[in-house]
Amino acid sequence: MAVASEDSAAQLAALVDQVDEPQKATFxxxxxxxPRATLLRFLKAREWSVPKAHKMLVDCLNWRIQNHIDDILxxxxxxxxxxREIRDSQLVGLSGYSKEGLPVFAxxxxxxTFDKASVHYYVQSHIQINEYRDRVILPTATKKYGRYIGxxxxxxxxxxxxxxxxxxIKLLTMMSTVDDLNYPEKTLTYYVVNAPYVFxxxxxxxxxxxxxxxxxKIQVLQGCGRDELLKIMDYDSLPYFxxxxxxxxxxxxxxxxxxxxxxDHPFHQQLYSYVKQQASKQPSLxxxxxxxxxxxxxxxxxxxxxxxxxSELNKIADCNKLARSLNDLxxxxx
Length: 334
Fold this sequence. Notes:
Elements lengths: L1 H15 L4 H11 L3 H11 L4 H17 L13 H10 L2 E6 L5 E6 L10 H27 L6 E6 L11 H14 L4 E7 L3 H10 L5 H4 L2 E3 L5 H4 L20 H4 L12 H15 L19 H34 L1
Parallel strand pairs: 2-3, 3-4, 4-5
Antiparallel strand pairs: 1-2
Protein name: Phosphatidylinositol/phosphatidylcholine transfer protein SFH11-like
InterPro entries: CRAL-TRIO_dom (IPR001251), CRAL-TRIO_dom_sf (IPR036865), CRAL/TRIO_N_dom (IPR011074), CRAL/TRIO_N_dom_sf (IPR036273)
Pfam family, one: CRAL_TRIO
């Protein structure tokens, strides 16, 4: 496989050398000095098929150009009160680093409400965090640890996940599609913690649909996952919801200094300051309003998975309605 991957990377590199200058410029912004590692990510995402990886990469470069992704870190979400509301409803943050130096991102899947702004703001925020990770966080980690670090770890907290999540599927699919097609192979492992019945039911039917390379990245841990996560990171890097022996509530811990979701956390303070600083270098002041980014169409696998999740959630909802109806009937008869 090593020889085959080297040969594939060389072939893809030769093809990338033939792209137009604007595409070369955005590719340079993508790889941050590590073009081969970037080529390998796209090859791996397309099962080492050079033609498919080439198409995927060119599509990505065109998407970046057409949507001005290279400039997205010059576009602060203003006013800051709106950005704070986005942070309170789109729960994501950097909690620390693994023992190997990989950034650890926490995501509050179950308790994110996505109800404080338009879809465009949430997509813009998501891409800004991706770009800040790739252009600032990962290069800084690479320099600190003296070796290339190009991936992160994600801890997905399912606390509070309810059937109402069905209303978020479209937005989550949009962000997932952006990642799959334009930021492939940037996550080493997804750790799922605090998983309720709703997740377990969906996972049972979704898991067989996943490609093997995706399936091996996802680990569903018992409870808050503290003991397992401490094998790969220090206690200080654990997301706050993993530090207890039982499920934590975001609302209970929201005011804590360790809440990496909050705008007051150092990660978000640094990110927002960086974007504002980049904006100040532009000839004109940033305008208020969201940045509209075109989201590429989902691939067949992704579409199938989303439809399966929707179907499973609807089944659970129907069962719950039936249970309530039977319960009401029992009460009436009694």
